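Escalated from tier 1: 1-O-phosphono-alpha-D-glucopyranose holo job.
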Amino acid sequence: MNMKRPVRKAVIPVAGNGTRFLPATKAMPKEMLTIVDRPVVQYAVDEAMQAGIENIIFVTSRNKTAIEDYFDSAPELIATLTRSGKTVQVTQLEKMLPLAGTVSYTRQQVPLGLGHAVWCARELVGDEPFALLLPDMVSYGRKGCMAGLMELYEEVGGNVFAVEECAPEETSSYGVIGVGRSVNHGLEVTGMVEKPKPEDAPSNYYLNGRYILQPEIFDLLASQERGAGNEIQLTDSMQKLLNVQPFHAHPYTGRTFDCGSKRGFIEANVAFAMLRSDMGEDIYNSVKDLLDMHEKTRVKAA
Ligand code: G1P
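Tier 2 regenerated the structure:
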């Protein structure tokens, strides 16, 4: 079996409810919340494209049509902007429009967990390796996390995913892996467990939401066994696949913001705004002012 076939397609699950962001997500998908002026989901698409991905497969659910509209053309808006001479915005919108036929959508009809959402993409992926990006996890670094993962895949083939280190008490929020020796630019994976208690965690390397998987994962996901949180977990099927195929981990050296949490989302907004050439300095100064103001208020209140 050739375990280094090219990776052309990326699956991006966007079916979650976003209950942590209510009421904002009552009438809009959480993936459309903005980091500065671009929706969270755009960051995952850009990262995939930067890594050489040609096709995006979204796994959506009810009330997610705003995502489809966002990746479609907007002729009325373009006409209005053109009439008012807003050429910069027109160019920007045209540049971000995916090539016709390169974006597909399938629905996860029942929210049964990440493993089930990925399984819903099996027909669109077909019999080839695919990338998987969880859009809540927004990576911030010189190079996109998926591009680095693709480099490791080209070296070792098989299944690869990106990991970062977390504090021991945080293991119960993530998938955590056991690591063996270093291989090329990665680490051999010896086991994986979803959301372990700190005392059961095999290490503090957690899965940060970026994967390249062989299509055999779909046969394992098909059994639909429930795991942590009574959900169908991707990690459980990966653990089974590890018995027959290699897995390697890519330690990501950038930083990932967990935009599924309010804290991560706010941090991402500040960090990305400070990086922007058109506003970075202003935002940096504003953050300093806000810190001063906050300190003074705290001193007064004490
Ligand atoms: C999912 C995965 C978990 C991974 C995490 C990253 O968990 O199951 O292994 O570490 O994403 O965000 P969820 O956040 O959906 O609970």
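Residues 114, 134, 137, 174-175, 194, 206-207, 209, 233-235 surround 1-O-phosphono-alpha-D-glucopyranose (CB under 6 Å).
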